[in-house]
Inverse folding.
């Protein structure tokens, strides 16, 4: 009789364990589903839009048209950064003038233009010019000599 009672107790215990395991698995699945839904809700609340600065694109296109490929361009209200590998070292001033002119037309609200020139992918010179000076030169208010004297030229080793 005791053996039957032990078997009944063991069956009840086994059934309880199965139900407990099934309940824990079910609750685990609910937690995983909630985590996945929460993740997708988080992703949906993010602003995934990329803001393209059209001025950057236009300046880059102008530089490519002039033969300056693979330039790096960043235009903000404070400054314009332009870096490029010079196609020909003997034309470096022509490229500076072209870059200053194109930049002044596309970003006349920036305060200064910073051009970093590379040769064989090694930086060798940085030229900084205020937008006010570029506009003055463009409108013939100052001479070329006065304009070039206002350039801040730094040699980079």
């Amino acid at each position: 009789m005791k053996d039957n009672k032990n078997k009944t107790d063991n069956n009840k215990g086994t059934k309880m364990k199965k139900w407990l395991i099934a309940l824990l698995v079910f609750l685990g699945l609910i937690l995983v589903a909630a985590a996945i839904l929460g993740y997708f809700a988080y992703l949906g609340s993010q602003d995934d839009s990329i803001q393209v600065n059209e001025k950057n694109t236009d300046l880059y296109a102008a530089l490519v048209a002039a033969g300056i490929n693979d330039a790096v361009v960043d235009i903000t209200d404070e400054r314009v950064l332009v870096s490029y590998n010079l196609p020909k070292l003997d034309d470096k001033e022509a490229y500076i003038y072209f870059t200053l002119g194109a930049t002044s037309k596309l970003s006349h609200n920036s305060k200064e233009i910073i051009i970093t020139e590379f040769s064989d992918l090694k930086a060798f010179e940085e030229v900084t010019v205020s937008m006010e000076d570029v506009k003055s030169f463009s409108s013939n208010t100052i001479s070329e000599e006065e304009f070039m004297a206002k350039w801040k030229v730094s040699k980079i080793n």
Notes: DSSP finds five helices and five strands in the chain. Residues 68 and 87 are 7 Å apart (CA to CA). Strands lie at 72-75, 79-85, 112-119, 122-130, 152-155. Helices lie at 2-45, 54-65, 92-106, 131-138, 144-149.
